[in-house]
Amino acid sequence: MSEIKSFDTKRKPCKPKPYLMPIEWGGTSYFSRIAGGAEITKVNCKGLKPPFLILCNHASFIDFPLVIKAIFPYRTSWVISIEEFIGKEWLMRGIGGIYKRKFTADMTVVRHILNALTRQKICCTIYPEARYSLAGINEQIDGALGKLAKKAKVPVAVFITKGNFIRSPQWNKHPYRKVPIEGEFRQIVTREEVLSLSAAEIQKRIEDAFVYDDFAYVRDNKIRITCDSRAHNIHRILYQCPVCGTEFMTDSKGTRIWCSACGANWEMDEFCQLHRTNGPDIFNHVPDWYRWERENVRKEVDEGRYHFEDTARLERLVNGKIGFTDLGTVKLVHDKNGFTMEGDILDGHFEFNRSVASMRSVHIEYDFKGRGDAIDLCTLEDTYFVFPLTARNVLTKLHFATEELHKLDLLAKEEAARTVEVTAGERLSP
Predict the structure, then answer these.
(1) 325-329, 400-404, 410-414, range with the lowest pLDDT
(2) Does 400 lie in the same domain as 368?
(3) pTM of the model
């Protein structure tokens, strides 16, 4: 019996194949048309030629053809999550796809990016949030992008699209809403500046440019979303009631969201703003509610109260041909020790841990391919999709908690380093 091969993540990505150019550009035309067109504005791009680094926000699949449209006639390689290669590895490799397992510190990926930029002399596109936006606003991004640009010595462009999230939010992808999509492609670091600026200065420019709010875009531009299911499933991100504080008891359908614990009700208007129907307004703007939940999770983490556990179904991503295989059930725990799994599965006794320090965030999927809510937990060698079996609507809180635990760990290490520095200084002083 031949050994089943896993993904070959060390294989050098190729330059985008010339014969795939008509497919890329034809697909771009098709997807732009079904999305109602997209108006793309270029800022500070005079004289910009490959290679350069492209950083984009991420709301839906349509983001990929929009990049192709924005940089035409140039082409780009792509950092792509490994599960996207299932059943189409030849295509992903053919367009210059670079394998990436979610939220792992993989130096092989960095080497592949640098190879594309410095040796192949082509662009490289990265989605630095490393997942689709959950609430139409910018999420935490990789803090080493400035170092990457500095190492490659290439210009940096940021491509921010607006309207794409409202058209198809992750918690209710269909039906598509009719929303005008706008994109701004802006060079924020020139070829000369990348040599003179520090990595920290480049990182600051990236983070300053990487700000967006799709709900504000619709509200401020008076764009009417007439879809009668515009609030359907929004409780997947608005899981905590701001009236009574109860978690995981909200629900939504059509244009309404409500709390089953206290009976509070909200209606979403055509500009995607919320209005309380049976009491005073608390949050009208969806991102404000979302950020309030994050602050509550931060308090739990800071006070040492955060803890989650459940029984979960475990699936492992084998390779691009086989896809996922079901391994059985495990006990899943998330706390100050990170994500821990343990149980007896098909391959025997299974133990897994990803520490808080090793995960700046976590990738989640609402009802992944119709198989249930999933958490994507990876090592450098394996990708596991974990499906909680009894906990209701917990993914968004797990997402918040992973990030807040990581931030707290960083703060503790910085404080410890300052203490050591002060102590050393005191010992050296006369």
Answers:
(1) 410-414
(2) yes
(3) 0.92
